[in-house]
Amino acid sequence: MKTKNIFNIFFIITIGIFLTGITSPDLVAGEKFAPKVKLPSNMNDRALWAPVVKNWKVPSKSEVGIPAYEGSFIVSLKVASHMTANGVKYNTLPTIILATTDDPAKVTAFYKVKLKDWKYKNDWKMFDVFWKDGKKFNSMDIRDNATRPNIIIQKAGIPYLEYMPKAKSVITIVY
Questions:
Q1: Which of 2, 11, 74, 104 is 20 to 30 Å from 89 by CA-CA measure?
Q2: pLDDT of 133-145, one tens digit each?
Q3: pLDDT (tens digit per residue) in 87-98
Q4: pLDDT of residue 8
Q5: In Å, how far from its chain's centre is CA 101?
Q6: What's this model's pTM, rounded to 2 decimal places?
Q7: How confident is the model at residue 1 (pLDDT cuts 50, 70, 90)?
Q8: Cα–Cα distance for residue pair 65/85, rounded to 1 Å
Q9: DSSP, res 36
Q10: Quick one: three-class SS letters along 83-132?
Q11: Quick check: 132 and 150 in contact, CB under 8 A?
């Protein structure tokens, strides 16, 4: 009788652990794409931004399908949405913006290795651009930026330096 009760308890616990694992969004979604930025304690408007950052739903690595730069932190997330440009409606892709303390040249070198089948160009001597399809990519055209998978790497500036003061590079990933 004791063996049967122990088996039943073990079975219930095992099923509970299994169901919890199956329904947990973190376990179902897979490994998180990258960690969220840790906001500086002396940041302006920290009280406003802290809850926003806390509530970001970070996609999994498999959802994004593009590697995160090692040691980078998420400083912004945008969900897929709709936009209108010059009277034409577009569906936009989700976007993740990362910041890192590494120089843009080092970040670009990382992506040149990781995304060998992507197109690359340095645009306006200001930022490096990677895009997936073979068509021309106009980094100044909001439609290209928002509707086609791409990565733009640039020197960190405001507002990202407020979120991560030691950042040297910002990486915008549209997936």
A1: 74
A2: 888 999 888 888 8
A3: 999 999 999 999
A4: 41
A5: 16
A6: 0.81
A7: low
A8: 27
A9: B
A10: EEECCEEEECCCEEEEEECCCHHHHHHHHHHHCCCCEEEEECCCEEEEEC
A11: yes
